[in-house]
Queue: 2 jobs
Job 1
Amino acid sequence: MKRLASAFLAATALVSAFAADKLPVQDDQDALEIEPPLLIKSRAADGSPEAIATAGTPDLTRLEAAVARAKQSAASAERLFRAGVLAKVEAEQRGLRVVRLQADLAQTQLEQVKYEEEQRPRSDSAATQTSSKSAALAQAIEAAKTAVAERGRAELAAAAANLERQRKLLALGSGRKADVSRAEEKLAKLKRPSD
């Protein structure tokens, strides 16, 4: 057994000695210069980056896809909750995520309509288009207000449910007072009118 171990160590030392001799030598003449791609693709005539129309706002198609996925996830969460696989909290959180994404989508659509309204050329022939564009803007504003109000109601309901859940856990002896006070603070914060 000792002979086998010593033979293995000798073979390993021999292989590592040969491997160290065959390391490649870097020549300064053969060094490759790699230029990274430009991160800012479009530039204005003065060399500054152009303002992109939707800079800082998520893409509408991505948000619409996220809303669709969130709706499917919420629907499956209800089914999984009834089957006992998921907790009720997780099902509620998935439903709240749908409402939040819908509010974000409505806000993004409003921003896009406002941007299109600003970019539209002002001309006398566009008088008929003005009424349709302002109607679309009013409709987008109303949809955004409704979505934000629905989001507020859903977050308030979720905070109230969380407070009730924490109080029940405290009464059963498995909750903490800190969790209850944190839930109370969150509910009070959501009930306060935003300035």
Job 2
Amino acid sequence: MLEMVRLMYQFSFREYCGGGKTACAQKPHICTLGPTIATDPKHYLQQSEYSVCVRREGEETCFASYEDVEEEEGQDELLEYNFPGSEALKVLGKLDLMNITAYSLFNSESSLMETLALREMVLKWGQVISP
């Protein structure tokens, strides 16, 4: 599985970068949800926050592309980080040390097995799991 990783992506979103935020409802703009919304317990465990890009068309709210958001200084900074796949084991090891694992995020038997397999077969012995 890990040998197939060529590039890993991580996104960072900063909604407010100082003062308030402005948006025109008819133009694509980014809104955030969470972590205080009523939802599945796994979202609380993940301390998740989600972003959605929307625009108004008449009386309806529609999804829009993040790429169509017009840049406004001081708000809605969306950054993309690209890591080479060769760094996957190092990143997974650091996440494991911080207890950011499949089990801590999803709290299921299958995620526990995934976490144990990662620790025993990949991180400990350096073996890559094939699909």
